[in-house]
Structures are given as structure tokens and as C-alpha cells.
Specification:
Blueprint (H helix, E strand, L loop, with lengths): L7 H16 L3 E6 L2 H4 L1 H16 L3 E6 L2 H10 L6 E2 L2 E2 L3 H25 L4 E5 L6 E7 L5 E11 L1 H8 L3 E5 L1 E3 L5 E4 L1 H12 L3 E6 L17 E3 H7 L7 H13 L4 E6 L5 H7 L6 E4 L3
Parallel strand pairs: 1-2, 1-11, 2-8, 5-8, 7-10, 11-13, 12-14
Antiparallel strand pairs: 3-4, 6-7, 9-10, 13-14
Helix pairs in contact: 4-5, 7-9
Length: 288
Amino acid sequence: MSAARPPRDVATLLEALPYIREFHGRTVVIKYGGAAMDNPSLREEFARDVVLLKYVGMNPIVIHGGGPEISSYMRRLDLPVQFVEGLRVSSAETVEVAKMVLVGKVNKDIVLRLNRHGQPAIGLCGDDGLLFRAARRAAPSGRDIGFVGRIERVDVDVLNHVAQDYIPVVASIGADREGNSYNINADEAAAAVARALGAYKIMFLTDVPGWLADPSDPSSVISEASADEVRAALETVGGGMRPKLAACLEAIDGGVSYAHIVDGRVPHSLLLELFTDAGQGTRIGGSA
């Protein structure tokens, strides 16, 4: 007589066990944005998932943007909303609005939810403890996009100190040596943090099922790819996926083992990608 199969919930836990063992003590950087940030129920699920990662011995660090909320407030203030190659064109007024929204509202909302679900969190931005040293950058084509920054330096001592006892939640704003503030693409900020920390994984929550072979076909998810394959295809990728893939390469080239692009519209997509055999989304590893 064959042994009875374990109940589905137990089987899921058993499937997760080797992954929990492998990831224990490892740092995972999570870029949080899109629908997972906008939908009330998904916001709660995300907070629970991140708290669970901390409870099972991982070191989650959340980097967030807040593009839709920034755009909403800009429209209320009659400021133009414009993107070039997936990056927000940012005047000085745009950066003021971004700081107000990201640091004063979005960041604190995330911190409060994590606290409520059982783990203390600390909100930061690039200005805190000189966490990010930034410099002005152009779009990939060379076009001027205003006060948009690239991160030149991440002070890992700040993050390591906070992460000992708290979940760090970082808004993607930074400043240069002269004190000029810059709007920083959150994907790039997450990649810079992952590189500086030597993170094991970086996770990008987005509004598509993953990297799609055919952008018009949601079922054409590329479940696994090497960094070389992404590099070869990058010039043909458009829209918001391009900076995400570029950020994946930036992280992997800096020593991060794996980068993941997952669908933040799916409840618990973070856990499904980390702790199940099937996964959920696209995993990008080192060169083939």
C-alpha cells in the first residue's frame, strides 16, 4: 500500500524548506512598486510576506518608488508628467514633489504596515546618513532629463547598522556633494544597494508576469535567462522593462547571484518565486 501524500498545505511547506535553509542569513533586496503598492489588499499581503522573510532568517531590504502617486500630485499642481526611455523627466519642482510624496507619505505608509504585521521597520531615504551619494545623469540616449540622478556611492554601514534589528525601507531620493536633490529611478537604486551589500538576490515587483518574449503576449514569460542573454537583447527592449533589465545586469555584474522580475499583481508572488520549485516570473543568473 502506497504512503498517503501529505496535504497540499503541508506539501507546500515541505517544498519551501530547502529554500528557507538555503536563504537563511542571506540579504534580499526588494524593489517595491506598481500594483503591489497601489492595491490595498496587495499592500497588506506584501507587508506580511516581507515580515515572514525576516522571521525565517532572511535580511530583507525594501527599496521603493512611487511613480503613480508622484504623477497624481504633479497633475494636481499642474506640473507636466513626462518620461523618456522609462525615466521621469524631473525639473527642480518635480524633485520637490517626489521628495514630499516618497519620503513623507509612501515611505511612512510602508513602515507602518510592516510594523503592524509584526516586524519593526525604519524608513530612510538617500539623504539619511549620506546613504546615497548621487550625480546628475542623462537618459541612455544622452538626452537631458533634468534632476535625475545616478548613485555613485552607497554607505553600507548605514544599512547594515539598521538591518541588524529592523527592516530598512528606502525611498529612491539622493543628493550630490553640493546638496542638490535628485529623483533616482527606484530600479537603479535597488541595483546599487544590492551591489554594495553583496546581496544574494534582488527582486523587482512589477505589473507584468515577467520579462516577456513578446510584449503583447502575457503568456510568453521567459522563466530563466543568463546575464549574457539579457545583455544581448537589451537594445531591443522598450518601455519600463528596459531599466528593470538594465538594473538586473547592474546587480549581477556587481556580484549579486540572482535577479528576479515578478508580477506584483499576484498575491504572495514574492514567496512563490523564492520558495517554490515552479517559481513565478523571470529569474536571471550569471553568464551561461
